[in-house]
């Protein structure tokens, strides 16, 4: 019986690479998206062409707690169980202190922290039954803050603690780990300090989505004695990290 993975934010970029990688490992894939339905459906078609009925698309707004709970229910109903949850979806933008609003709190805290909590909560029973795993996508900025991104950093720091605390609460049946990517893909809106970031990276280059996807696969499948850990996949940037 094939394992099932739910991946949030799976239509594009790193999420899509994670989906392809787990699919290559024999998983059935539940591709969550919010707005990128065209890309999600194209990816599902690609995966289903490789293996019939091995990918489905689920649409949900992670800023809405009821929608997150409905997403969890739909995920479990798709094939009857979930083995792996990858909390990859994330909102990212600057929130200078003077300009931060209640809406910014909702947008950044819901998608980056509350939605992962609610999904784990709703899927805990099936994950226990399947001795499953959760992988949370965190960030190097959970530990070293990025200037004028306090709400994002707060949310990711919370996700790091969620990873550790729920690893204790759901063990021994469910393993929960995190990944902190470094420079993998630049934000689509651009990032002005790219060279500074690369200069602060021991390997002196960007990583690739495949680096993250490989780490997800390892934590999900090949690390039975690893839980409550946050793996930095950052080319050594955290060794000499400076904000920015």
Automatic annotation (TrEMBL):
The keyword Transport does not apply. Its EC number is 1.5.1.33. The keyword Oxidoreductase applies. Signal peptide: none annotated. GO terms for molecular function: pteridine reductase activity. It holds the Pfam family adh_short_C2. Keywords: Oxidoreductase. Coiled coil: none annotated. It comes from the Bacteria. NCBIfam families: PRK09135.1. Belongs to the short-chain dehydrogenases/reductases (SDR) family. PANTHER family: OXIDOREDUCTASE, SHORT-CHAIN DEHYDROGENASE/REDUCTASE FAMILY (AFU_ORTHOLOGUE AFUA_5G02870) (PTHR43639), SHORT-CHAIN DEHYDROGENASE_REDUCTASE FAMILY PROTEIN (PTHR43639:SF1). This is Pteridine reductase. The lineage of its organism: Bacteria, Pseudomonadati, Pseudomonadota, Gammaproteobacteria, Oceanospirillales.
């Amino acid at each position: 019986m094939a394992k099932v993975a739910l991946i949030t934010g799976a239509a594009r970029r790193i999420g899509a690479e994670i989906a392809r990688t787990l699919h290559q490992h024999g998983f059935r894939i539940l591709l969550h998206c919010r707005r990128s339905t065209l890309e999600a459906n194209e990816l599902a078609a690609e995966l289903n062409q490789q293996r019939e009925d091995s990918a489905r698309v689920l649409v949900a707004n992670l800023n809405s707690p009821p929608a997150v709970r409905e997403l969890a229910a739909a995920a479990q109903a798709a094939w009857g169980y979930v083995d792996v949850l990858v909390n990859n979806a994330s909102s990212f933008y600057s929130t200078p202190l003077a300009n931060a609003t209640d809406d910014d709190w909702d947008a950044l805290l819901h998608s980056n922290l509350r939605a992962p909590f609610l999904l784990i909560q709703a899927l805990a029973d099936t994950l226990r039954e399947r001795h499953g795993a959760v992988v949370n996508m965190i960030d190097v900025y959970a530990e070293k803050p990025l200037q004028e991104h306090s709400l994002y950093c707060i949310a990711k720091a919370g996700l790091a603690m969620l990873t550790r605390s729920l690893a204790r609460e759901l063990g021994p049946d469910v393993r929960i780990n995190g990944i902190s990517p470094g420079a993998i893909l630049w934000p689509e809106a651009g990032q002005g300090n790219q060279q500074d970031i690369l200069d602060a990276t021991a390997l002196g280059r960007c990583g690739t989505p495949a680096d993250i996807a490989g780490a997800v696969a390892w934590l999900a499948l090949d690390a039975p004695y690893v839980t409550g850990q946050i793996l930095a996949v950052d080319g050594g940037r955290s060794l000499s990290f400076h904000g920015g």
